[in-house]
Design a protein that fits this description.
Blueprint (H helix, E strand, L loop, with lengths): L25 E5 L2 E5 L9 H4 L4 E3 L2 E2 L11 H13 L13 H7 E4 L3 H9 L2 H9 L2 E3 L8 H6 L1 H9 L6 E6 L8 H10 L1 E7 L5 H7 L6 H13 L3 E9 L7 H13 L4 E6 L4 H14 L4 H7 L8 H18 L30
Parallel strand pairs: 2-5, 3-6, 6-7, 7-8, 8-9, 9-10
Antiparallel strand pairs: 1-2, 4-5
The protein binds iron/sulfur cluster (SF4).
Iron/sulfur cluster binds next to loops.
Length: 357
């Protein structure tokens, strides 16, 4: 991942280097997950560096939640390859796990993140630039994954942001662990804008377990949303990605929006699945195994690119809008760049097998 001020990242090594390649310093272990120190020189990525139109901070590389559709696996592979080709030849010990699984089980922890953000914001030019655009925590990996309970890196970043005035902060997560930091969110809110975007694609617990095997249950996320709202924190729900043929049925959208309404979320945004290369490598075999009846349709639907057809996306948007309107839930939000808007009119049709290609 490119960084705002320095694109280089260095890594701590074990005290006793092995012959040949040297392993990153292991800083923890949790069942089948191993944590390693990533001594990044910068964690605050500027809008120009990422091309995303906002600042971003990701306290971890890799994510233990293991969603089948995750598009962020590339960052882990990229880091591993870059380390392997560096002059010192450091490695992330993967124990021969395939790259998609190493993303979930070999997590890099940016232990200095809070200090680095504080140092960056001590420069008036950086602070002024930060006030121009929103800073989003968790654009690539979940900042409240299980590692956070132990390492508290995201909390250390929030502590720094709470000392600032006139900034805008968004946190993207699937975990109710974010409620641990309500004290800091309220402090940030005193002088800045803050909102939490909770990702939730279905309220079907069994389906969620298949799609997002280690992520918190939908009920736990909804309880987290309600708790944040009780404390006056703005909460959006990211219904992203909507999985064609799996989570896009009208009755599922209805159940989800009703639950979101009951939890008092401020708004929702939705977006159909995008399949970039590394997500495709994991997701399509997953579909073959878990939803074989959809395999051919998926391959045809995503044959020409990473997006499903415009007509599908447009129909989906109108379906969500209609259900949200019916339940008095705000759809889309000025802070959500990912929500596409359309003036298209016509019957609501989201037949996954119709608008292929
Ligand atoms: S929570 Fe987000 S980053 Fe983590 S595996 Fe799921 S989609 Fe990927």
């Amino acid at each position: 991942m490119a960084h705002a001020h320095n694109t280089q990242t260095s890594f701590l090594l074990e005290d006793e280097p092995r012959s040949g390649r040297q392993s990153l310093l292991q800083v923890g272990e949790q069942k089948d997950i191993r944590y390693f120190a990533a001594n990044s020189r910068s964690v605050l990525n500027g809008p120009k560096a990422t091309g995303m139109g906002f600042w971003s901070i990701n306290p971890y590389v890799g994510c233990a939640f293991g969603c089948a559709y995750c598009y962020a696996r590339y960052a882990h592979r990229y880091t591993a390859e870059r380390l392997a080709h560096a002059p010192r030849g450091e490695t992330i010990p993967t124990d021969d796990l395939p790259p998609w699984l190493a993303f979930e089980r070999r997590i890099l922890v940016k232990r200095e993140a809070g200090t680095l953000v504080r140092r960056a914001l001590a420069k008036p030019a950086v602070l002024n630039a930060l006030r121009e655009d929103r800073v989003v925590i968790g654009t690539a990996t979940d900042p409240y994954q299980p590692a956070e309970r132990r390492f508290r890196i995201t909390r250390s970043v929030l502590e720094v942001l709470a000392d600032q005035k006139g900034i805008a902060v968004t946190i993207i997560t699937k975990s109710p662990l974010v409620t641990r930091d309500i004290d800091l969110l309220k402090r940030i809110k005193e002088h800045s804008d803050v909102c939490v975007n909770v990702s939730l694609i279905t309220v079907d617990r069994e389906l969620a377990r298949r799609l997002e095997p280690r992520a918190p249950t939908p009920e736990a996320r909804l309880r987290g949303i309600a708790r944040l709202r009780e404390h006056g924190i703005e909460v959006g729900v990211n219904i992203m990605p909507v999985l064609p043929g799996i989570t896009d049925k009208t009755e599922m959208v209805e159940a989800l929006i009703q639950a979101v309404k009951a939890a008092d979320a401020s708004y929702v945004g939705a977006c159909a699945l995008r399949l970039q290369a590394t997500a495709r490598d994991r997701y399509l075999p997953f579909i073959d195994a878990e939803f074989p009846e959809l395999a051919d349709r998926y391959r045809r639907a995503y044959a020409k690119g990473y997006q499903v057809s415009a007509s599908y996306r447009d129909g989906l948007r109108r379906r969500f809008k209609a259900v949200c309107d019916a339940h008095g839930v705000s759809y889309g939000h000025a802070k959500d760049d990912d929500v596409e808007t359309s003036d298209a009119r016509g019957p609501v049709s989201v037949q996954f097998d119709l608008p292929l290609g």
